[in-house]
Each structure stands twice: as C-alpha cells, then as structure tokens.
Fold each of these.
Amino acid sequence: MILFELKKLVKHFGGLAAVNGVSFKVEKGEIFGLIGPNGSGKTTIFNCISSYYSVTGGNIYFKNQDITGLKTNKICKIGIGRTFQVVKPLGRLTVMDNVIAAAFSKAKTKKEARRVANETLEFCELIHRKDVLAKSLPIGERKRLEITRAMATRPELLLLDETAAGLNPSEVDAAINLIKKIRNKGVTIIIVEHIMKVIMTISDRIHAINFGQTITEGTPQEVVSNPAVIEAYLGEEYAQS
Amino acid sequence: MKKIAPLILLIILIIFPLVIQNAYYQHLMILVLMWVVIGSGWNVIAGYTGQVSFGDAAFFGTGAYTAGILAYHFHISAWWGMAFGGIMAMGVAFPFGWICFRLRGAYFALASLALNEVCRHIATVAEPLTQGMVGILIMPSFLSKIPYYYIALALAVLSVGFVQIVMHSKWGYYFLSIREDQDAAESLGINTHHYKMVSLNIAAFLTGMAGALFMNYMGFIDPSVVFSLHDISIMAILVGIVGGVGTIFGPVVGAFVMVAVHEFFRTGFFGLFKGLAALTGSDFLIVAAKYISQAHVLGFGILVVLVILLLPNGIVGDWKKIVDKLFPFKKKGVST
C-alpha cells in the first residue's frame, strides 16, 4: 500500500531550481533512503513536505490525500513527524518538557501527555536524561531528542534528516538500532543520510538525486553500483573504472 | 520554604493596610500591586512566549479609557470597566496580533511600539469621546485607600494565580516552545500564530484590567499618562526584566523594586537633595533637587544595565546566585 507519494515536485529559489521534478512513492512500513551529494536538494524536499517552503510545482500525497500547501503544524497533526539536520532543541526546557510539548499534539490532557512522553523517552532510551536542560545535552543526545520529540507526536511517517551526522561509531550503531525499532513499531520512515553504513544497512529502497533531479531508484545494492550515482559522488573517472 | 514563602507574603500583604495607616505607603502599595498585574501580563507574552512587546500602554490605556468613558459618558460605575476594560484591550490586541504576528523578533517589538503611539494619538484626537488632552475626571468611589488596596490585591493574586495555572497547562508548554524555537514548535504540531494570539490576548486582558483599576483609583487620566511610552510600556518591561523574565514571581519582585526606584527618584532621594540644598544653600544642589525628580528614567537605565550585567535572569531567576554572593559561607549543595 502506498502511504506517501511525491509527484513531480519542483522548488525554485529565484532562478535556481533546487528541486526539479522529483517523484517517488513510499510503501507503508518501509525505510526509504534519500541520498545525493551536498546541495542536491534532499533537505529542500523535506522542507517542502513539511511545508516550511511553499512548493513551486507538483503535488504531495499522504494516505491518498493531497497535502500540498497545508500548514506546517497541520502536516504534523495528520501524522508526518520530522527531525532537523541542524538540531532545534527547546534549549531552556528540560528533555521531559521538550517531549511533553510534542506529545500535546495528540494528547488531550496533561496527564496523558506526560504518560506519552514517558513512554516515548523510554522507547528512545533517553529516559535517564529527562530532567536535564535540552541545551546541555551533547550532540548525540540532541539528535536522539529530535527523534524522541518527533515520535511523541505519534507519526505514521517519520522524516529523518541526517540523524547520524556528527555521531561517533558506537552512537551511529545505536542510532541504527533505534531507527529499526521505530520501523518495527509500524512507522514508515524516509531518511536522508550521508553515512553510507547507515543508509546501506537499514534502507529497503534508495532514491538518489543530484542537482534536484532523480538519478536512480532501487535496492541499496542496485543504487550503489549504478555508474551515475558513483559519478555524482566520486567524479567521472571512478565511474568508468 | 519555597512553598510557604508566597503564603507568608500574601499574609503580610493582607494585614499591611491594617498595620500601616500612612496613606502614602498605602498608595505606593496599591501601585505595586497594579504593577504586579501589568508585569504578569507582560511576562506571559514576552517572558514566556518570547514576543517582546513595547506596547503594553496600548492595552493599559484602552482599559483605563474604557472605564473612564463608561463613567463619564454613560454614567455606569467605572468598576464595570474592570471587566470591559480587559475585553476592550483584547479587542485592540486581536487585530494587532492577527496582522503583526507575521513579524518576528525585533520587528514585532517595533510594531508594538507603533501600536502604543497610534493609540495615544487616537486618544488625543478623538476629543468627543476621550476629551483629548483635557483628560477624563471621575469621582472616586471611596475616600479611604483601603478598599482600593484590597481590590488591587485581589486582582494581583488572581493574575499571578491565573498565570501559574496557564503555565502548567498545554498552553504553557506551547508558549515556551514558541519562545525557544518557533520552527521546531511548528513541526511539533503547534499552530504558532494561534498560540501567540492566545498569549497576547491574555496579556492584554490583564493589562486592560490594571488600566481600569488605575482609572478608578486615580480618578483622572489623560493620553500622556495612560498611553505613556516610558512610564507604562517601558516600566512594564523593566518590571519583567528586573524581577526575572519567565518566572511566576518575577513580576511581583520586579513591581516592588521598580515602584521603589521610581519613587526614590521622584522624591529626590526621599527629599535628601532638597534638605541638603536648604542646609548648604549650594546652587548646584538647588538645581539638582529641581531636576532629580525628572531623572527617574536615567535611574531606570542604570538599573537595567546593572541587572543585565549582574543578574541576566532577574532577581527571581538568579536568586540562588544572589544568595551565594551574599552568604558565601553558607553551605552549598542545598541546590535543587
């Protein structure tokens, strides 16, 4: 079943086409990787989905409904959570309060919000830091807080923007485990990632873009052996050999 | 200790006018309590929601004029203005917020500054309604200050309690999220525009009620008094900053300090300059005594510089720091 679909998405910044006609479909329950070199438009696609940018052209469908142009907070309410590449913790609030604020998007009462927050913190293994101010967390836990907060809004689709960037190897492994755990809970995931180890081990399918245009789509093995992808990442000489 | 301190303060405030019969000190305390209400309102929009407002006088003046006009033109008790003043202030806040919350940070602050000035000019020009610069004079309801004192106290307690309840609800979490990061707040499903409106309207309602109280108590208002930028809008900011931005009891402490400082300057250091001038006959002191009462704005400026340098979180926010500085021998580790 198709949960999410992007149809010929176009986003112009002035004369620059940051995203130029990208289309893909995401099945329910899969982990869908989005890769591409720096500046290829991955984060722009995320920002278009979550409506931080208004799209120039094309449509976005979620559960067979056209959600193009909905407000950012509505996007969250209908079940699309996201994290930010440059983390945005609510600094002067404790970790617990960060997550409670997110839980209120579905919870009716404060008691319920607190319970959801507790469960989510437990699930994301951040419960031991719940009384710490968010700004005093190290980067690894800040990234984790981003995921925890997004999960507390009870999303059906989770957009992860470089959640493993800047982590040390053991933290990367922990992040991989967490993402798998989230998928096993039944949440569909679209992930943007630069660390190949992450994207190769967890993605079911990968969509590669460059200069805002689709290069190829397929299983991880297919995509990394595709000459166009190698060219985009490593340069022309490597693609020929 | 933290639990009972407000209770003790409340008891002291309740018995205060019974013990201190001096009308001057009672007058000062009424002003303090009024500033607690205004400071609490400012704290909701600026301290908790992070939308710094330079336009509190717009709401204050609207509340005051609502009460005044009700009494002057319609011969309805100005006390009705307490309720209507708050509602009318929300009537000003609503369209303003609707339009200007598209602006962020300093731009919103500038817009609120403009709102302040616009309201003042309207009140000056709309003479048939507001009497313009002549002002509105109404007969005071009570001769004694004690009824005013208790009304002001009730209003102050209700405001602080109300802010406390709001900040522990969903709204409170949303306000804080918006202050910390508006983009993150949006992505957590918070309709930031809507909740900024809620916050502004709470602030406007409280400030409007304080304005109506001012009308009732003072018996006289004119545009330059109730729409004053430095005596109302800036003072509200100072009450918030000095007391502690984003703390429940910050405005309470801030109101005490600011009214005291204001009065200290207004009376020329409690008549010290006048006394010295009379004693020594020095020309300099005579001139200084004449102008020192108008220098309270200068005093505010110095105070703000000191507070921002030494206590960036205000007196309540940095209370622990103050205690540590004053009692360095006191055992550390009792911290929360």
Note: The first strand of chain A starts at residue 2 and ends at 13.
Amino acid sequence: MSRQDALVSADWAEENLDAPNTVFVEVDEDTTAYDGGHIPGAVKLDWKTELQDPVRRDFVDKAGFEKLLSSKGISNDDTVILYGGNNNWFAAYAYWYFKLYGHQAVKLLDGGRKKWELDGRKLDTEVPQRSQSSYSAKEQDTSIRAFRDEVVNAIGTKNLVDVRSPDEFSGKLLAPAHLPQEQAQRGGHIPSALNVPWSKAANEDGTFKSDDELRKLYEEQGLDSSRSTIAYCRIGERSSHTWFALHELLGETDVKNYDGSWTEYGSLIGVPIETGPGQNDSGKS
Amino acid sequence: MCSAPDQNTELPAGTDLSKESVLVGKVTNGGSPVGGAYVRLLDGTGEFTAEVVSSASGDYRFFAAPGTWTVRALSRSGNGQTEVAVSGPGLFTNEVQVA
C-alpha cells in the first residue's frame, strides 16, 4: 500500500467524476449534508443505519454488506472513492470497512467534503440512479480488526494508540467537544496507550500530512515500529483515520482498528484504566 | 454521534448549564453571518479538539470544559480566530470574524 494506491486528490477527483467503473460515495453519520449537496454523481452511505447491525452492536454481516452494495449499484470491479464530512472520519471508517470485507479498489478523497467545499468545487443535489449490481463480499479480514480481549492482552506489549483529543484521553471529557458530555462510562484510557490525536495526522483543510511528516510524528510520539499496533478512539471512526495513515499511507504491516473503542472498553467491568496525561505527553492539561 | 448537532442557538433539551460549559457564537464577515464555515475548537496547547460547520445564520456550539480555548473558523471568504476563557460551567458567547 502506498499513498497513490489509497488516496486521490480533489483535482484528480474533479477530472474523474465520469470515469468508467468509478463510484464516488459520500459517507456521513448525518446524511443531511449529502442531501443539501454532494459531489456530482456520488451515492450516499449512512454510517449508522447502513453499516451497523440495527439490533446487535456489530457490523452488518457479509450477506448484509453484499445486499447493501448491490442496492447501491456498486460492483466488485468498481473503484470506490470515499469522502465525507468530519475530516473524513466516517469515510476512513468506511474505507477500513470495505477493506474488511475484501473490496480491493477503494480510495479516499484527500480532504473530503471540507476541502472540496473550501475550494468552491461543484456540489449537486441530484441523486444518481444506478442499476442494481450483484456484489459478492469476502469473509471479514480480521487481521485489521481488533476485539476487546486482544486489546486487554495488548497492554504493555503492543502499541496502543489512543487517537482521541488530550482531554478525552486524560478523562476530562467523555466525548468530542461538539457533543453533550452525557455518557455514563468511565473516563480515561487503556494503560500503556500513547495519545496521538488523529488530528495531528491531518492538515487544517482535512488533507493528510505528507509521509515524511507522518513518519516523524509517530516516531516522536514513541510508536515502536517493530511492534504490532492497535488504534482506538471513542467509537472507532477517528481511529480508522489513524489506521489509514499507518497502514495504508506508511505501509506499517500489522495495524488493527479497535472499533469497540472507548465506548466498549470504558464500560467493561474489571479492566484496568489509567487517567491523566500519557507517557508521551509533554505536560499538557 | 460524532456529527455536528443542529447548530441553532437553542440548546438541546437536558443541557444542564450548572454542569456543562457551553461555547456558542457566530462566524461573521463585515458584520454579516457566515454559514458553512468550518469552525474548529483548539485547546490551550493549540491541539484540535472538535470541529463543526456553522449554520446558515453563522452559529456554532461546542460542549467544552474549563480552560482556555481557541475558536478558529475556515471559510471561503477567509479565516479567523478568537480566544475564549471558560471559567466553569455556564454559557460562553463569542464571535469569530473572518476576512
């Protein structure tokens, strides 16, 4: 994996809106953004209602994913270009999710909706009509997905990268600061985790930093590249962004995303929790 | 859960201002509201904490904690920022002018 396999620029996207076998997909939690205007020709994917099982806390199963992509008119040999709001958090999550079910040709639009909008590029309200396809998914590739027992066992042995903001990491906040702080679970982080906020991997306009900057960042923060890595956040979407930076851009081999993340870990009975700044923290609040 | 809440000035039901520190404000340019701006909340060290998109009337809202915060707005008509000191729970009103 490398940057040109995984990421496309807004310029490239604009020139390839009508390219054959290429499907643009906007992924958001709140799909009203799409409804108000999206990249011309893009279809929408709802992070919550379409990618999550409506009853159990888990993803839709293989058959459910096949049905979903077929209904969107996406075929196995299509190149899927994902983008979205929130600095591409949910688009990065969907990227990881598509990889989990074995879709090979998937790329992320660098900068997502934000850069597209700030550049003043064209948005459209017309919803494209795509004919039903017959999509076939693979079994989940769990080499990129971490589950809770593995995370508990990783304490002190693997790189645990907590990509939430410093205040969420320390336990001061339980959710990002644009949300009400009503959650009931405990605050803090997994012992031995490094705090490398996802935002350090991105520029202000939402694009990813260069490979050199990213490599320097994770080195400086104490990531041991001889060890396996598990990234987590609160619900697994910001950590998909960091998983993307480490696994897809930098080509680190054994990197998993823990999608249960803090909403699962911080609610488990009996597991160790640390509060306060992390070991890689340089005296922040 | 991580998307921007409706950025109108009315606080969501159940918001307890005796416990929560809420930052509300407007993005303006020459006195006119700027909708669709990307409004970023940075903590006292300059670290990114949250981002929302301003409403058509230029409004934004964050749920923060006591401390010093920078609210920075990026828009097609320019960027700008302001500092906000949050002393404790309550409603803190501010404005970011972009140019």
Note: DSSP finds eleven helices and nine strands in chain A.
